Amino acid sequence: MRAVAGWTRLLGLGLRRDRYIGPITLVSFAVIAIINQATTVSTYATEEAREAAPAGTAANTAYVFLLGPLEHHDSVAAMATWQAGPFMTTALGICVAMAVVRLTRREEESGRTELLLAGDTGRLAPLLAATVQITGAAVLLSLVTVLPLIGGGGSALDLVTVFVQYLTVGLAAIGIALVAAEAAAGARTANLVSIAVVTGAYLVRGVADVLTGAAWLRWLSPMGWAQEMDPFGADRLLFALGAVALLGACLLAAAMIAHHRDIGSGWFARRRGPATGPGLRSLPRIVARLTAAPIAAYTAVTALYALVVGSLLPSVEQIAAGNEILEEVLVAADTGGALAAAFLAVMTSMLAAVAAAGGVMLVGRLGAEEKQGRTEVLLAGALSRTRYVAVQAAGALAGASVVLFGSAVAVSLSAGLAGMPWAATAADAFAAAGAQLPAAMVIVAGALFFYGLSTRLIAAAWALVAVSFLAGPIIGVFLGLPDWMVRLSPFSHAPMLPSESMRWPPVIVLTAIAAVLLTAGAASFARRDVG
Fold this sequence. Notes:
By secondary structure, the protein is mostly helical.
């Protein structure tokens, strides 16, 4: 077909462009799966421990919301799948969705797609190539996540069902991202929409599990379809057909949209800005205008998780009493305070890592601006490189701060509605966010340092985000990482307010590190070629 002519060449090009990020993602998923399996073996090695799980942790409503009901506990593989499955499937969905946007809309914004389409490449070839490539990636990610379960007591059919569970969510996320990439005004918006839909599917599944009479909601969520497969039980593989049908429908819809839109624009057009005005002569106002929408959307998505955190605060004592892993995480925080305060501290550190990722996202925008020639136009006038970097750094740091303190607002609101004292909880939430802010600043400053060296190195900043998140004081302990690895995360050094007294030395050191990275990044940017 003429419409997809040349898609195999684009497939090869996409594989070459992802020759680094693809293997890194695969290894990351494999390592997490191996660590999760090892942690599960140490926790549920005996039949007695597995028999006690349904009446302990798994009986808690909060954990049913987060992980789903524990229906099968007769093997280590079943326990490992229940313990990490919902989080890993969500992460897989987000990863493949962002990869689809990167290979389609991001390439289009860089101008490369238009050059390719000017030759003999068909209009739909980029869509088909991205679909094939990322479907293959979803298969590999699902496979490396399931392989550590071999030998854990599940049958071959059980493991195949777990594999199909992951793949189901991945295929659904690919379809959603295809439509978002074609319809959204830009790549950043497409990413935010895709992440919001995948995260929303996870939340819908959680609501269906905890609310009486809401089980029908599972049919609205790919996470629910995956759950209905019931690995280690009925092994109903036919539910995967829903994801296949969704992917096919979304691919068809994306193709129809692609035929009716111009290259470089979405189905939903960008809001036109003012043609004249003082704001167009002020770099801070331009930065604020460009970052307001993505940060607002990112803050809203993060606040959804923060609402769940706040709602759990009144029942932390009961949750920890039936959960050895959570109790270990809170004790490892070494705060010496009440469990509720320790829970707020460690969860705020996780939210701070998410906020730092928002700042890194804004830094990634600088690379796109430079590649599209806009940075060179700005610097052609009286604007100095130092001021340009300083204003952009302020915008990225402010964006991360908005996400973090917006999460504090959400935690305060949901905790207050759940019965916690309003004023005291708000004070604790904002104090915890403020204590974690310097650690988030280090991550954002590191991204700006990489940008100062080269636009090609911005992707390395996401490795900083991954390390800070996975080796942080909650995920790192949950996964059983050694102490030296947990200490790699800057969030492991920040004061764990409100459950401990304020410690100024780590705050000062983290702030100084961020300042050094920003200064080095600005100096590097001043010496290198733009573009």
